[in-house]
Amino acid sequence: MAKKYCYLFTEGNANMRELLGGKGANLAEMTNIGLPVPQGFTISTEACTQYYEDGRQINPEIMAEINEYIVKMEEVTGKKFGDLENPLLVSVRSGARASMPGMMDTILNLGLNEQVVEVMAKKSNNPRWAWDCYRRFIQMYSDVVMEVGKKYFEELIDKMKEEKGVKQDVELTAEDLKELANQFKAEYKAKIGNDFPTDPKEQLIGAVKAVFRSWDNPRANVYRRDNDIPYSWGTAVNVQAMAFGNMGDNCGTGVAFTRDPATGEKKMMGEFLTNAQGEDVVAGVRTPMPIQEMANKFPAAYEQFVKVCEILENHYHDMQDMEFTIENEKLYMLQTRNGKRTAQAALQIAVDLVKEGHKTEQEAVLMIDPRNLDTLLHPQFDAKALKAATPMGKGLGASPGAACGQVVFSAEDAEAWKNAGKKVILVRLETSPEDITGMKAAQGILTVRGGMTSHAAVVARGMGKCCVSGCGDIAMDEENKKFTLNGKTYYEGDYISINGSTGAIYDGIIPTVDAEISGNFGTIMGWADKFRTLKVRTNADTPADAKKARELGAEGIGLCRTEHMFFEADRIAAFREMICADTAAEREVALEKILPYQQSDFEIFRLWACHAPISVRVGTRSTVRLSI
Ligand code: ADP
Ligand code: MG
Prior knowledge:
This protein is of the alpha+beta class. 43% of the residues lie in helices and 20% in strands. It folds into 4 domains: 6-242, ATP-grasp fold, A domain (Dna Ligase, domain 1, 2-Layer Sandwich), CATH 3.30.1490; 243-341, 2-Layer Sandwich (D-amino Acid Aminotransferase, Chain A, domain 1), CATH 3.30.470.20; 379-513, 3-Layer(bba) Sandwich (Glucose Oxidase, domain 1); 535-626, no CATH class. The strands form 6 sheets. It has an 8-stranded mixed beta sheet. Strands 1-2-5-3-4 form a 5-stranded antiparallel beta sheet. Strands 8-7-6-9-10 form a 5-stranded antiparallel beta sheet. The site of magnesium ion (MG) has 2 residues, from loops. The site of adenosine-5'-diphosphate has 18 residues, from strand 3, strand 4, strand 5, strand 9 and strand 10.
């Protein structure tokens, strides 16, 4: 039997994400559980891999199946491509197995041409809507399929707004939008050389190819590399009937989470815009309203949406991130997926889901990405305060945690200010080994130069101290103790806050909260302890490290590098003496000085490590296991 490449939404389900992509599988699943989803079909990820295998071509077999599914879709929706009575307009949407938000391309209102738009304008008695759809379609198609830069069209819109003396897109009239559509088509012809395509099927194939092609665009490639998503997976393409959020003030579009993705609080969070479509909410063309205001604008649709949220959470047993549109006060669901969340929210949600009976303790533990927990072992910004803050700059998140304090420019100042009871952030062009004491005294470190492996970054991570490195936007004047960032000059003593997990730098004070394995974190770790089969040993080089690790629950020392015991001022002198000794006798003398330090350190290790073995690394190569 020939391979199947297309699936109606009614033919798929949530378990088919490898074939249908996350978006397609969930559109099918939402259809199956009876939610209002504009219907359509998904072209599988295998069609995408085949497209690449065939040298970036859609082969005749797949083409025939797509045509067959257009007919099926026309039957399901009762509308037809290019029809003057009842035209079918669709969106063409990418959707990989793993969610890659905003990385690939989407085209809306496909199927429009000069005749269809005229008829649509007349029949609906809403020419503004018809022309708004058309100009959006030309704009997106030109950008995504033909790669005519967005900016040319945006410039034309800005010009039109200026001419008409209006500020927002929604204030443009049907006539203005019609004029814009004509200007767009002229722009298209000038850039491409041909007329804008009028045949909806030709438009569709162009769009499908563009989505396949977008799998290989630079930003998608970078995202995949950062998130360990294999190139070989390919993306699916969803062809979906349009729901129109731009027909007037009883329409709108929005995005929402079933719970707060920053804190995990069980409270719907989201935004929506009336008389808008697609990316308007995220693109920032107008300021969206909080989702709760929908209750006043569209009470019935809002009530229905609240129910849908509940149905989806009960179905997926996890927090959902959804996209929806309201057409003439009727709700349509366009997307759902498990929502991305902060580490703190992940814990809150996992614990709540167990309490609510959605997850077992074991499942809750598996929901947590261990990589994110690192940030929770360090001080963090108070979540509420952080929400209100906007970063003024960004460097590399070199060592996790959050810090807030007064700017100082040298290690000596850091120590002196600390001794005077102040909290400081040490800001340096770059740090060197002499800065270590200053780094210790500071709440956090910010450097202008250096990457993730720079001195500041490595040392800060070792200390468990927050560090943002390599913020090249800073204009530094160490000598005069000041720097400029984002147009503002900061002097010694000014307050800044930095986030070593994200690299964000903030003006002023954002309060931090200390790491504690208590609350939700404690609960989850308690559950993890029940199920784990590995013992956890720490990497500790000094008694202070060992003590901290013990507090955080370590059961032994896995690696102890003895050289780090000798970094402190009094010890390093003896160590240098040993290295520089010219004779064996001199070396013996130096070793005698070192011995008591080392002995006393190991005494302390033994005190808490009990009978657990300690592996000690001497120098850089040899590791010996000590049982003490
Ligand atoms: P992304 O993966 O970047 O989120 P989407 O495919 O979800 O891209 O499309 C972006 C937006 O376009 C959606 O959030 C929705 O607002 C709009 N959209 C997509 N398909 C439709 C449709 N059939 N009807 C109305 N709006 C749509
Ligand atoms: Mg989306």
